[in-house]
Specification:
Rossmann fold, 12 strands, binds 2'-monophosphoadenosine-5'-diphosphate
Length: about 280
């Protein structure tokens, strides 16, 4: 029997992760199955433990369970610890759970795939939940001059900045506190796109040169954030599909010790984009 992997979330039917991992398995000739597993909102722990008890080898965790997964893992990678959230787990031979977080590296890799430069740039990160938290250290490692974390609830952004305080380029506050200057890169890590809305921020931060990236994606249509940024004239507006492929490749490496080539998957996903001009799930 093939080794079994899953993506656990609620809802999870929209996930493109099974498609991506099946391609990776084929490409690297790894014998594994990868399926969707919807956990009831009040029984994530039971669902995870059942999967492990029946011989499951690992998987991804998506909304809204990343923080719960973090709390349930026996061991954590440094990046999961810093993110406070787990999007990748591996069942060790001992039955213990190893938790990792590949979202941040997936985001940075996809930004780089799309020639969005981060070094010495001004970056605005919208949101202060698990998705934003996982992105902070990987973004700071690229040495921007400013990483401004803005959140609808200002306190949460301020708390995040205090938590990562030793990094000089990091600042944060509410949407009204965002410095009214154009940013080089604007990343939406809020859940607004899930409800087809856009964070209530000034349009003055966007110029045609601003690289705009929505960590969210929808199979059916362009996200509200991508439409908003494109209507403001931004030339580069991307949704989070590429990030899904990149974080998936990193997860695959954690499980199998083999790093798949993301290019064929990225090409497949870009053909599926609802708009040709244009990753948070797993
Ligand atoms: P995730 O793990 O995906 O980050 P989360 O931890 O629930 O999910 O965080 C959701 C984030 O999206 C928060 O930053 C939230 O802002 P608040 O802290 O003010 O709640 C943000 N968010 C959700 N819907 C939003 C909207 N319509 N406009 C702006 N921000 C929104």
């Amino acid at each position: 029997m093939n080794d079994r992997y899953v993506i656990i979330g609620n809802p999870v039917s929209h996930s493109i992760s099974p498609l991506v991992h099946k391609q990776f398995a084929q490409q690297t000739q790894q014998a594994l199955d990868y399926d969707l597993l919807e956990a009831p909102l009040d029984s994530f722990e039971k669902t995870l433990k059942q999967f492990v008890a029946t011989g499951g080898k690992g998987g991804n965790i998506t909304m809204p369970f990343k923080e719960q997964a973090f709390a349930l893992c026996n061991q954590l990678s440094e990046r999961a610890r810093l993110a406070g959230a787990v999007n990748t787990f591996k069942v060790e031979d001992s039955g213990q759970l190893f938790g990792d977080n590949t979202d941040g590296i997936g985001l940075v890799n996809d930004l780089q795939n799309n020639n969005i430069v981060l070094r010495a740039k001004k970056i605005l990160l919208l949101g202060a939940g698990g998705a934003a938290r996982g992105a902070i250290i990987p973004l700071l490692e690229q040495q921007p001059t400013l990483l401004y974390v803005a959140n609808r609830t200002a306190q949460k952004a301020v708390r995040l900045v205090a938590q990562f305080g030793e990094y000089g380029a990091l600042q944060g506050g509410g949407f009204n506190d965002i410095p009214t200057q154009p940013f080089d890169v604007v990343i939406n890590a809020t859940g607004a796109s899930a409800s087809d809305s856009v964070p209530d921020i000034s349009s003055r931060i966007i110029t045609p040169q601003t690289g705009c990236y929505d960590m969210y994606y929808s199979k059916e249509r362009e996200t509200a954030f991508v439409t908003w940024a494109r209507n403001l004239g931004a030339q580069i507006c991307l949704d989070g599909r590429g990030m899904v492929a990149e974080q998936a490749a990193e997860s695959f490496y954690v499980w199998r010790g083999v790093r798949p080539d993301t290019q064929p998957v990225l090409a497949m996903l870009s053909n599926k984009r609802p708009h040709t001009e244009d990753g948070d799930e797993a």
